[in-house]
């Protein structure tokens, strides 16, 4: 490792998301290598809560709609960066890239969302762009901005393996925030197709309410006459207990998925995973188990094959877990992250 660095991680979104999760894992990796990470984030944000829980220092910045507060906040942030001895800035959004540019420090852009990249007046100051998936790098390539883009995919620690159940109807699970883009309606329609074919299965949904409610999903299940076969779990405390209770995982997303923590977690859990081709999902899921977004019939057909052959489902789950261990290790993620940032922060 080069001389320990002091890195300012600027993340101005209030919510938890794939972008935020990537920033948090990056901070852990850098700290584990002996570097110091200081967050700059809005009060009350998921990043502020993460920093407090994990022992990272955090400097407050205005929220995304507090434009009038920005000039004074920039002066305070510049003073704090000098006091903290900050060597480099990791910017996780376009607005935070502008803040980093105005601080006049070595600037890295960390990209873990699906917004189309554009060339702005701050782009020339970016010394390195870290893309969280091949899909994101391709967005840069299509925009003609692919120079200096390094792909570093998130790593994951494997949880203790819970063997699949050997009795009862197989359980098919979907874990994700309740939002139309996550494809819950498609999942329920596929469930109806499977049940109408005479197959036995249970369908389980977990996640926090966002732009949909559990009441909305219950109404959809009732309209499809499958409410007796669908269980709603609400927000769960971590993914792995829910995933271990399922026999097959599904990601039914219609779009987004620049990164997919859920896909990594299903793989690490050792469960077979059927998903759409949205965003980066083909980087995690075997081709035979990918379906077009919005195609409930294709989703039902793929799930039907696994439901009819539990041995094949178990074998796919074993391959997924082996791949998580081999291709998505935390050690590899940390090493690549530190190498990229150490090289750029000079």
In short:
The protein is α/β, with parallel strands linked by helices and 346 residues long. The chain contains twelve helices and 13 strands.
Tell me, what is the CATH class of the largest domain? Alpha Beta
The mean pLDDT is: 94
How many structural domains in the coordinates?
2
Distance between the termini: 13 Å
Q: Beta-sheet strand percentage?
A: 15-25%
- Shape assignment: elongated
> What's the number of helices?
12
Strand order of the largest sheet: 3-2-1-4-5-6-7
CATH topology of the largest domain: Rossmann fold
Rg: 21 Å
Computed structural class: alpha/beta
Level-2 CATH architecture of the largest domain = 3-Layer(aba) Sandwich
What is the ordering of alpha helices and beta strands? EHEHEHEHEEHEEHEHEHEHEEHHH
Count of beta strands: 13
Classified in CATH, the superfamily of the largest domain is Glycogen Phosphorylase B
Percent helix: 40-55%
Low-confidence stretches: none
Q: Main sheet?
A: 7 strands, parallel
